[in-house]
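About this split. The held-out portion is used to measure sequence recovery: a designer receives only the structure tokens and must propose an amino acid at every position. Recovery is the fraction of positions where the proposal matches the reference. Here is one held-out target exactly as it appears in the evaluation file.
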């Protein structure tokens, strides 16, 4: 393949308004054949068939879409324009939407200049020049395929009073005479492609180019969320390398990153949130940044597999108003509104109001519901040309049906290729679980962010977050017998319907047939719990950027305080056994007056960090080192037992180091070492959970940053890993947590961005080897995963305004449960079953007509259903899930 010319030097970061992505289409396209080496674990027939179907579908779709791109992209298209005359601040935005061009301008520079009406078919360049004819605005394009810049002539003063804006930057561009610098803690509004952002802030809370970040960071833009219409975050993150589905698909936004389950932990606007049971609503999300591996600064006590950082929407100094209604077969029925604007022309104040209501059936039954509502008022104030304050309040409530009753057949073993349910259980029924069984959450998050450019080289960020979380869940759990005594002591294999007891006379273990459950009376219990968390977070960061001759320097230092008080308590309720012949029978529990559990916990964490980057050889070699000091006092009291409180009053240092070499302006190699550590109290015992990772990789960008390719190899480990004990679901006396050490290594590949100006893609493949301390597969973690998402937009002709997307994700074979460590005869417990590989498909289409946008989303369009899709144990309550069938959702958005 001929060598690509190096991309132009990256522009100075400026506050701009950017619409759509690419500029001109490609002249020629070359399609290369991708050869798949089927891993040894995919040699069984069902796995190989699923993997081939996934690859064939991806290749077929990719081939057709590339053919369309080649056919339509031969010459610059003539597009249909209907641009009214008006203020350039409004008409340039409309030009960007109708042309799909990337248009860069400062709103205050163009406001007050009146543009001409343009109606008819033109090339984008001709339409823009006709539109600006007679004004004092000039147009410039950076390169053949770069963005279009619009500015006013240097000698022309602004026609309206200027609103306060961030500080100016010196530029050698005479046609961009009045540009502004973004705060170092804010991502750029400019996107290289609608599927690809060029920067992120999730490394050390400071904006950095993804090409210059010495770690694996994936960014999912708002356009990706809009195309996929997700119910939960994983519906979007499934296309990112190294991300897998966590146990259960109902709540807690559970995901697995590089083999480690997040258990609901995520960061929102750089603040780490604990393992709460709520799902963050997509209506408030602006972008999602995923950092792979431990991150001592952004998430010092998070998962070593990586961090999910959700960046929420903010007020805009530009009027945007939309109302969206969604209908579907299940997990749909939603109404949302999003309104943002200034308080007047030239005002330094802006607001945003976001709201949504949802009440929908779930897949299993019409009376299994999914309900939610969100209200999020936001406010921004440009205090001066260097300082801005943003305040957000995000309130949400969710009511989610827990899950149906599911139990594997006793005959299912590790050798069973397709695990199946016990007789009498349906894959599309509540199976006797009451419709009142639900997880209910009520949250209120207050964010305040002050950013200021103190000088030309120093920037300050002061941020605060207060979070109130209340969970009032009423759930129905299985009360089947413990599985601990049903492992064969001689082999370590689970025998679900057999109990092994020691015969004192012979000193041998004797099997006794004992059915795990009776279909006419499956034992269940009620569980009513209340959890309340109050959390306060404070952060302050200072960044200095210096140029010392040929050496560049960036120093980031910060302090953080996190304080939380929490209680969790619950009571059990007596319920009659479930009769599988009468699954619709309604009953209510008789609640006990005694606490089943009652924990009171609190922590106070102090953090201080410094991160230093030094650039040598004109920044071709970048060396980075960071150190974080973590001081915690964590306390846990079990009020049900007489045990003294568990206290961890300790401190720990974490560090990270990296080296990045830019072989070319668009190609970088890097190595990084990173750590983190979490203070935990497991089973009333204080512990430090340490994570460490070594990673080496390379990154490249093509087509003026529109497309990126990354590859990474990593080795990662964690000590004192705690997971909920599946035996606890059926035996309240069992330990609440299982504790073990985990190790993992693997590699990842990811392609993100525009293959052509019309065709965008996300493609990923990951392979890892995750094993526990005894060499066993870790439940719910697959060794192989792959995904492909394609989007094609028609920008000319009769199909102008139509957009199509198709996605497929593949998950490999996974262990279905966590067995006991050792039998009484010191034999290692064996995994009792494996979840087979599977793939999930999606299709979407949208069409824009005037002020309306119509969308159609079809999930699982092959209607593959009923198979075991995810599991953390053999019974409900451990994350076991069967695949739902096809889901069709249609939505209409009115931009008013």
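Reference sequence for scoring:
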């Amino acid at each position: 393949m001929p060598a690509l010319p190096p991309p132009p030097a990256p522009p100075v970061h400026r506050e701009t308004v950017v619409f759509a992505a690419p500029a001109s289409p490609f002249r020629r396209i070359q399609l290369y054949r991708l050869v798949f080496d089927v891993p040894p674990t995919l040699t069984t027939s069902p796995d190989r068939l699923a993997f081939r179907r996934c690859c064939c579908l991806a290749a077929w779709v990719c081939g057709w879409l590339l053919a369309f791109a080649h056919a339509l992209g031969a010459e610059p298209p003539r597009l249909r324009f209907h641009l009214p005359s008006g203020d350039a601040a409004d008409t340039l935005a409309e030009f960007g939407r109708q042309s799909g061009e990337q248009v860069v301008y400062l709103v205050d520079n163009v406001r007050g200049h009146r543009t001409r009406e343009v109606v008819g078919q033109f090339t984008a360049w001709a339409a823009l020049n006709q539109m600006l004819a007679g004004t004092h605005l000039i147009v410039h394009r950076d390169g053949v395929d770069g963005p279009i810049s619009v500015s006013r002539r240097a000698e022309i003063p602004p026609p309206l009073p200027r609103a306060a804006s961030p500080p100016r930057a010196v530029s050698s561009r005479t046609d961009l005479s009045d540009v502004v610098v973004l705060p170092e803690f804010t991502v750029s509004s400019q996107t290289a492609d609608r599927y690809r952002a060029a920067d992120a802030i999730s490394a050390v809370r400071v904006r950095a180019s993804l090409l210059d970040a010495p770690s694996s960071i994936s960014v999912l833009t708002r356009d990706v969320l809009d195309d996929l219409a997700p119910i939960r975050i994983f519906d979007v993150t499934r296309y990112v390398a190294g991300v897998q589905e966590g146990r259960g698909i109902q709540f807690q936004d559970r995901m697995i990153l590089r083999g480690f389950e997040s258990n609901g932990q995520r960061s929102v606007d750089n603040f780490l949130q604990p393992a709460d049971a709520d799902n963050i609503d997509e209506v408030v999300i602006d972008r999602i940044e995923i950092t792979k591996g431990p991150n001592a600064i952004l998430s010092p006590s998070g998962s070593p597999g990586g961090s999910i950082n959700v960046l929420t929407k903010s007020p805009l100094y530009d009027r945007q108003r939309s109302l969206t209604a969604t209908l579907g077969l299940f997990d749909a029925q939603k109404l949302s509104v999003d309104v943002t604007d200034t308080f007047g022309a030239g005002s330094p104040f802006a607001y945003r109001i976001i709201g949504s209501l949802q009440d929908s059936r779930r897949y299993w039954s019409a009376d299994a519901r999914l309900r939610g509502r969100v209200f999020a008022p936001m406010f921004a104030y440009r205090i001066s040309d260097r300082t801005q304050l943003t305040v957000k309040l995000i309130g949400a409530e969710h009511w989610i049906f827990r899950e149906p009753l599911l139990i594997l057949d006793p005959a299912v073993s590790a050798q069973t290729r397709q695990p199946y349910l016990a007789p009498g259980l349906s894959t599309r029924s509540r199976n006797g679980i009451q419709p009142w069984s639900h997880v209910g959450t009520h949250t209120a998050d207050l964010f305040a962010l002050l950013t200021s450019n103190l000088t030309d080289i120093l920037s300050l960020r002061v941020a605060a977050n207060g979070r109130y979380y209340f969970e009032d869940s009423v759930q129905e759990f299985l009360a089947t017998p413990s599985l601990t005594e049903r492992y064969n002591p001689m082999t370590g294999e689970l025998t679900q319907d057999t109990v092994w007891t020691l015969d004192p006379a012979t000193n041998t273990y004797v099997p006794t047939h004992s059915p795990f459950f009776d279909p006419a009376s499956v034992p269940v219990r009620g569980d009513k719990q209340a959890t309340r968390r109050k959390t306060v977070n404070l952060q302050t960061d200072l960044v200095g950027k210096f140029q010392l001759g040929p050496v560049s320097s960036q120093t980031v230092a910060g302090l953080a305080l996190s304080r939380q008080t929490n209680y969790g308590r619950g009571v059990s309720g007596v319920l009659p056994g479930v009769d599988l012949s009468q699954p619709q029978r309604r009953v209510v529990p008789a609640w006990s007056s005694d606490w089943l559990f009652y924990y009171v916990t609190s922590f106070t964490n102090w953090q201080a960090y410094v991160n230093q980057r030094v650039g040598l050889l004109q920044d071709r070699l970048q060396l980075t080192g960071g150190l974080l000091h973590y001081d915690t006092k964590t306390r846990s009291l079990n009020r049900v037992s007489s045990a003294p409180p568990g206290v961890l009053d300790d401190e720990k240092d974490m560090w990270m180091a990296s080296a990045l070499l830019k072989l070319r302006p668009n190609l970088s190699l890097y190595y990084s070492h990173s750590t983190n550590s979490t203070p935990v109290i497991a089973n009333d015992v204080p512990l430090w959970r340490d994570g460490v990772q070594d990673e080496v990789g390379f990154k490249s960008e093509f087509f003026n940053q529109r497309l990126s390719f990354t590859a990474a190899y990593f080795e990662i480990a964690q000590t004192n890993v705690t997971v909920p004990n599946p035996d606890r679901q059926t035996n309240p006396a069992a330990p609440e947590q299982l504790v073990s050490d985990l190790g993992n290594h693997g590699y990842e590949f990811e392609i993100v961005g525009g293959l052509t100006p019309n065709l965008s893609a996300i493609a990923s493949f990951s392979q890892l080897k995750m094993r526990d301390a005894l060499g066993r597969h870790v439940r719910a973690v697959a060794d192989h995963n792959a995904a492909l998402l394609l989007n094609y937009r028609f920008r000319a002709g009769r199909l102008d305004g139509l957009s199509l997307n198709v996605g497929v994700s593949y998950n490999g074979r996974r262990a279905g449960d966590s067995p006991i460590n050792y039998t009484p005869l010191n034999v290692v417990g064996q995994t009792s079953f494996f979840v087979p590989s599977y793939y999930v498909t999606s299709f979407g289409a949208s069409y824009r007509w005037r002020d309306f946008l119509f969308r159609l989303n079809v999930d699982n369009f092959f209607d593959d259903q009923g198979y075991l899709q995810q599991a953390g144990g053999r019974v409900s309550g451990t994350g076991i899930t069967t695949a739902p069938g096809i889901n069709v959702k249609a939505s209409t958005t009115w931009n008013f």
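Annotator remark: The chain has a mean pLDDT of 85.
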